[in-house]
Request: fold
Amino acid sequence: MSGDSSMIRHHPDKNQLLEYAAGTLARGPSLVIAAHVQMCADCRTHYHTLNSLGGSLLNESPAQPIQPNAFEHLMTRIDRIVEKNTVKEIKDREPEPLNNQGPALTNLPRVLQKLLAKNPARKWRKVSRSLQVCRVRTGQRDYEVAFHHLRSGAKLPEHDHRGQEFAVVLHGSFSDHNGIYGPGDFVFREPGQVHRPIATQDKDCLCFSAVGAPVAITGIRGLLLNPLIPFRPG
Reply:
């Protein structure tokens, strides 16, 4: 799946794309940027350029001598990884409630198709009359990663961000005070940034996001609702 770059107006900045290309970005945000890159021809070009530059620099780097105990250290790390993955595999065998009722997740970027294949037992959670959330497992503990489905014309409560939010629009569109976000557009919010997303009237909006902390609803409603907002990284 790829988007029309002439229609995609919002992109990761250079540092975010560089971190993603270098493999130093956390897994949650990396999945979001990977989905955007697969939808955006311009960012795919930048990504391939960064990869080529990285390969050239690696080839030009002088060879480093191997430490005498390097092999032992490598085998120890492999043993730890195998042990960790074995424990994770056992935990992942525990069945989850299967709920196929909810928005269809179709025509997605390849990276998200693969992610869904690893999450066959997924469940949509109804947050309000207009918002549904489907959390997916990604094997990390820093970000909650989920799909968000917002009905056409719906308005989310104004909220603050207590952690970083990375998101990409998959279908439909929404707007806030910063502009309009359509298919393929990348959204990034820093802690302290307040906004109120509003889905456009013509169709429902589907987004994929990774958030580093729960949002905080502003105003009096927030005093009542914020303690009840769940945050489930994984």
In short: The CA atoms of residues 170 and 183 lie 5 Å apart. The chain has one domain: 1-63+98-234. Helices lie at 14-22, 27-39, 41-60, 70-92, 110-117, 219-225. DSSP finds six helices and eleven strands in the chain.
